[in-house]
Structure formats: structure tokens, C-alpha cells
Design a protein that fits this description.
By secondary structure, this protein is an alpha+beta fold. It has one domain: Immunoglobulin-like. The protein has two helices and 13 strands; from the N terminus they run H-E-E-E-E-E-E-E-E-E-E-E-E-E-H. Strands 2, 4, 6, 7, 9, 10, 11 and 13 form an eight-stranded mixed sheet that branches. Strand 10 and strand 11 form a beta hairpin. The termini are far apart.
């Protein structure tokens, strides 16, 4: 066999892997970017996207910076996940983690494709940027009605501070001074 004949199976395998990863299910936070001034409350929706097959349940963990954000709670969407076998997870405020969020749906219409999972609520404690990061939980896998594990990619949201009005005023005054100096030099 020559080099080209060895390359064909490798290229075909790479295309299969790329096609499979392009169809991976994702758990996203919406919106993915939030403008939150100090003291502002905001919510992030946890949405499943690109799920193939009928999903009977799943789980996730998430983390945040407890010095920059205050976690106010999680509400699982009981319209999509009506079964009482669910949990909002275990919160550790010192580390900024919530582990073991899970939910099931075996008694109603099973979600597929894109669907709402939960809503996370926070309050901004800082004027510095932060993130909220979703993650998998090895003990709480996503599964479909055929009892197969569904691979999921987990997203994050960027939380950006909004400058205080005084900061905006200082910035405008500085730009006005630069503009005035340029006019004098002209």
C-alpha cells in the first residue's frame, strides 16, 4: 500500500468525527453575555440545543465566582421536566459551585431538538467581569428513551459590568478635554 491509500481511511475517519461533533448536543446559557451593573439582579436560561432522540433526563453542575456574583437560585422548568425526581443541586457558596442538578421526564411528551431546562438567578457583587460555567456531572448523564447516553457540550455566559454614571461622566469629560486640546493646536 502506498501513502495515499493509507491516507484515505484516515481522512474518512476524520470526516466522520467532524460530522459527529458538529451534531453534538449542547447545554447553553442564554444570554451568553450579560451587562450587569453592581447590585443588579439577572437571570440566565439553561437551554438544550441539537438533541437527537427523545430525552428522558439529564444533569449538570455549574460554577461562578462567589466574590463577583451572588447565586440567588435555580428553577427547573417543570413543564418540560414534570417528574418529581429532580433536584436543584447542592450549593457551596464558598467555592461558587452547584453540583448535582438533575431532572427527569418519563411521564409526559419527551423533549427533543431544542428545549428549556432551567433558569439560574444571580446578583452582581462586583464591577469586574465574571463568568458562569456549566459542566457535566459524571453521575448524572443525559439519556434518551433507548437508555443510551447522550454526549453534551456545556456552555458559559460572560457577565460584564456596566460602568457607574460617574465613570461615564469622567470618561466624557476626559474625551472633551482631549478634543479641546486638539482644537487649540489646530
Amino acid at each position: 500500500m502506498n501513502f495515499v491509500s493509507h491516507l484515505r481511511p484516515v481522512a474518512l475517519a476524520a470526516l466522520v468525527v467532524i460530522a459527529h461533533s458538529a451534531q453534538s448536543a449542547t447545554l447553553d446559557l442564554v444570554p451568553s453575555t450579560v451587562l450587569a451593573p453592581l447590585g443588579a439582579s439577572f437571570s440566565l436560561d439553561v437551554n438544550g440545543n441539537d438533541f437527537a432522540g427523545n430525552i428522558i433526563g439529564g444533569g449538570f453542575n455549574f460554577s461562578y465566582d462567589p466574590l463577583r456574583l451572588q447565586y440567588d437560585g435555580l428553577v427547573i422548568d417543570t413543564t418540560v421536566w414534570p417528574d418529581p425526581a429532580r433536584s436543584a443541586g447542592l450549593h457551596d457558596p464558598a467555592s461558587g459551585t452547584v453540583t448535582g442538578v438533575f431532572f427527569n421526564n418519563i411521564s409526559a411528551i419527551l423533549p427533543t431538538g431544542s428545549f428549556h431546562v432551567a433558569r439560574l438567578s444571580f446578583t452582581s457583587l462586583s464591577s469586574l467581569p465574571s463568568t458562569v460555567q456549566l459542566a457535566g456531572n459524571p453521575g448524572l448523564v443525559w439519556g434518551n428513551e433507548l437508555a443510551e447516553e447522550v454526549a453534551v457540550n456545556y456552555g458559559l455566559a460572560q457577565i460584564n459590568p456596566v460602568p457607574e454614571p460617574g465613570t461615564w461622566a469622567l470618561m466624557v469629560a476626559g474625551m472633551a478635554m482631549v478634543g479641546a486640546r486638539r482644537l487649540r493646536k489646530s
